[in-house]
Amino acid sequence: MSSFDEQSARGFVLLPRLVGPAETARLGEAAESVLARVTGRAAAGPAEVTVWPDGHRLEEVDGTTVHWEPGARPPVVRSLSPVTHLDPALDALWDDDRIAAPMRRMVGSARLGRFTSKLNFKRAGVGSEFRWHQDHPYWYCFAGPDARDVATAVVFLDDATVDNGAIQLVPGSHLAGPAPRDRSEPTGLLVDAARTDVRGALTVEAPAGSVLMFPGLVVHRSGPNRTAGDRRSLLLCFQPAGRPELSRLPYRAERLADLP
């Protein structure tokens, strides 16, 4: 079994320094440019605003959803999604074979399609935690059973460390399927850690330019960023070709009733 297959069997693959320093810096510049344009337009005029049951505020601008950090003053953006359509440097990564070739193996399809993309901005000192969760329940509300075939490539634009909120994941957790959800949590999307074994969790520390890949059923979380530097990342979510992207699908919360 190859190193890729060994890692993939555990539910994740880490490719250290896949993207070189100069290219990573350019991607970081593109991310900041997109953020400046989007937030500038959000400040300039009316936008569609949604407030989730947990109090998180989302705003629709230029075909992307601005997710604001809860309670941050002055306002700070937590994430933008989808995002690659807003900059050609970000968009080009979908067809970059350094990422696409291993993702074809992870997704199990010779031809890949896009599902969605996201820029995460875990800003210095204010970047908040994301509790234990799987991506699958949220995606399931859009794509139904097809959500099982979606996997994510996380491109780290900054070094990821324990102190700045690096991703923690539970190896092998994808093999158990959808995890029990926390029914007391307003969105109904987070994992019930009291009924899910997370004791073997690993913290993925990696230098900027590294790429982490995992399917949507992996249980994972990230801590807050309490350092003086940002921890930004670009997420590319792939699926087999020929299926609609998340942005073209309605969110159907009633589908959560299908999951534990």
Order of secondary-structure elements: HEHEEEEHHEEHEEEEEE
Report mean pLDDT, rounded to a whole number.
94
The number of helical runs is 5
Percent range for β-strand residues: 25-35%
The radius of gyration computed from the alpha-carbon positions, rounded to a whole number of angstroms, is: 17 Å
Oligomer status: single chain
General shape: globular
Residue ranges: pLDDT <50 for 5 or more in a row?
none
**Strand order of the biggest β-sheet:** 1-11-8-13-6-5-4-3-2
- Number of E-type strands: 13
Termini Cα gap: 33 Å
Major pleated sheet: 9 strands, antiparallel
Note down, in words, how this protein is organized.
The chain is of the alpha+beta class and 260 residues long. 21% of the residues lie in helices and 25% in strands. The protein has helices at 3-9, 21-44, 88-91, 97-107, 136-143, and strands spanning 13-15, 48-51, 57-61, 64-68, 77-81, 112-122, 130-133, 151-156, 167-169, 202-203, 211-215, 220-222, 231-240. It has a nine-stranded antiparallel β-sheet. It has a four-stranded antiparallel β-sheet with strand order 7-12-9-10, with no helix packed on it.
